[in-house]
Write a structure and sequence with these properties.
The structure is a homodimer.
Chain A (H helix, E strand, L loop, with lengths): L2 H19 L9 E18 L12 E15 L7 E4 L19 H7 L4 E5 L11 H7 L16 H7 L20 H5 L16 H12 L2 E6 L5 H8 L4 E7 L18 E6 L10 H16 L3 E6 L18 H15 L2
Parallel strand pairs in A: 3-4, 3-5, 5-6, 6-7, 7-8
Antiparallel strand pairs in A: 1-2, 2-4
Amino acid sequence: MNTKNIIATAIAAVAISGCATHATNPLEGPLTIAKQGSFFVGGRDVQSETLSTLPAYLPSGKVTVDQVYVHYQIPAVPAGKPITLIHGCCLTGKTWETTPDGRMGWDEYFLRKGYPVYVIDQAWRGRSAANITAINAVKMGKEAPDKLLTVFAAGHEGAWAIFRFGAKHPEVFPGMQFPLEAQGEFWKQMVPDFLQALPTPNPTVPALSELAKKLNGTILMSHSQSGIFPFQTAALDTAGIAGIVSIEPGACPSATGDLKPYAGLPILVLFGDYVDLSTRWAPRLKACREFVQAANLAGGKAELVVLPDLGIKGNSHMLMHDRNSLEVAAWLDSWILRNVR
Amino acid sequence: MNTKNIIATAIAAVAISGCATHATNPLEGPLTIAKQGSFFVGGRDVQSETLSTLPAYLPSGKVTVDQVYVHYQIPAVPAGKPITLIHGCCLTGKTWETTPDGRMGWDEYFLRKGYPVYVIDQAWRGRSAANITAINAVKMGKEAPDKLLTVFAAGHEGAWAIFRFGAKHPEVFPGMQFPLEAQGEFWKQMVPDFLQALPTPNPTVPALSELAKKLNGTILMSHSQSGIFPFQTAALDTAGIAGIVSIEPGACPSATGDLKPYAGLPILVLFGDYVDLSTRWAPRLKACREFVQAANLAGGKAELVVLPDLGIKGNSHMLMHDRNSLEVAAWLDSWILRNVR
């Protein structure tokens, strides 16, 4: 029986048990939701004299910034801890929805598997407001141009290598599973990123802590630039954090830093394929291995998995969009079932 | 039919027959969805030399901008044309979701009434990328500060009067129905707005036309700054537009302009309460009355409704958040049933 057949059998089994017990929605057919909606966590009011250069809007006043948008869906019969999905650089919560080639996203996959799912937009991105008053301060001549906010847009060519579609644009790694025929739809997901204008930790981190406490137990699943956020959240306060799944993190905590916050927390760090072929990613994988080893020596329950070691091959940095995205998600589901109470 | 297909079909049949006596989901209890997801419409690639001022991201490359994010949900048993919800100034698609005080948003209301619901983020806002290259051109010294993009943030105090919570901050109109006790959550919805940096029509307009054609018939429901968008979309091409519901539009088309695009289209322009008390809104209502009259003389099927004339009182500019938001939505549902085939 090959992998595909095993998965098909597993899906059929889940579908049958889902039908009998209503514990989960099967992966096809109607989806039954107990409750859905959206709200914000975090945020602070700031007073500014440079809100606007337009007559119709006052330059002076108060705005609210640093909040984090959260959209959620709770399945009819929840069968697991809530999963909070945290996107990476130059992207928004859209990351986790429908793949660029139109297949089911991980948001719906985990929902159908019985998890309440919470999808955020990081502070200053997507539906979470940026503070643009420093731009208008320059436009009004109150500040010099070098005081402009640092903002960047990742171009397609540079992003190609960062996302490990190939060593460099437009080369493609052999067997690479990102659906490149739909790359146009993927580039539309990318947004400008103010992350370098923000303090460390990013305001998203305390907002995640607020969310974790509100949910009274959630798995923080992060990706890439946000890979470190669940660890930073745990360092603030472990309350409400049921586990950490960090997918292709841009950084792990230092192996020589304070590892106490991670003791006892189920932690998974996951990487895809071709990592050793990337000068950007290979050192990050190495540093994460060192962190996981050190965390376990300090009483942790951390695990680092590189998918090819499991026989799952061809994954780019955008695992949740790859052709085998649901195979990866199914493995994550099984990891969570084994490791998170 | 293989076993998996038989099971999936059986589950689907059970799920659908479970609500066979209801064409729609009731307003309480589990929600059954046939399909949900997200995609983009519109968008174009631009080449830039000022994408980034950071060493980690190349300044030169291609990015995609002007696209419009669309999130959709289709009920198990659709019972109406799709509704496309288009938010207004300084806001995102969040407008239509959970109200600031935690009640059901219009996105879910119309879904439960049987409409497929499509919620967008306007171009350059929310999950739809802005083009920030002009900001970096100034930061790099390639352009003068006055070439900076026009962007503004509406402050709480100014927005107070624009949203007609009262004549001016912090006064409150008597009987006003916006849930002010939850204003903190509402301010978090507001985002900076680049709309003044965009051409007319806004790139959202051709994107809406693409969406309307894709859906082969949708009601374009707009609000405030986007109030004019459905009309501008119809002026481009009426294909796929089943009707227009323009809620408190910032502007209606000119009564003396070309009215041919609107002939035969079911059109509703809706206003809330206290309009005559607002120097900003009273002239807009007057101009919309003139447009509706002229459109009808030119063979149109347009209607202008001011809610207090129906006995529905106290509505602010944010009708979809007001305490009686579902009463207003129910009236809109009945208007659509009467007017849109």
